[in-house]
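Q: Hi! First time doing this. I have a protein sequence and I read that you can turn it into a structure. Is that right? Here it is:
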Amino acid sequence: MISEPELDGDTSYESTEVLTEERAPRPPGPRRPWLWALGGAVVASAVWGGALYAVQRGEEPGPDLGGYRQVADFCGRAPLKALSGILGKRSVDGTGPEMDDPAVYEASCSMVFGPPESGYSVSVTYTLHRVVDPGPEFAARAKYQGLAMPVDGVGEAAFFDGRGGEGGELKVLDGQVEITISIYQQYGTDADGNPIEMKNPIDLSGIEVPMSQDALALMAALKK
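A: Yes, that's right. Below is the predicted 3D structure, encoded as structure tokens:
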């Protein structure tokens, strides 16, 4: 009869290893480089993200807005008196959509100068960047939009294009703010659908001068 080993005193199955005993610690050595890189990226991402949300919540000071702020009546702050003296009486106003986000605020207004059916349509856009600095991209975006002519004396930088003599567009950068003024000649139609020709069309050469004057007046009004 085969007996159980432990009953015969056989100790061949016994082990001196204690299973609960902790293993000796690994000798110290340099951490794998990719672990350091990964850890650094995670920390940097967390810090940047936390800072952004803190700014958006108003817990940390954001960039200097230079006195610019959200306004209640944007159209009322943009009378565009200089353009009115060139294009004619302002006749029609329209308020565009307003965007109010912790990162950016934007308001716009459209209007007509001269006869409503054959005058000039003008739009004005005010963009206040509350977090991101628009400066590094401003010239590149203006160039992409066809605004190649620099205009001195308006904000930090300004660019203009005459739109083939039938209008004009001026884009201004002043700190965290971008202001765009655009002019388009209207082509209305009569009751029969025929185009209404503009009587005594206005020579728009040099229109960037009154546009610049109105941009400066608007910039001052937006800080009040």
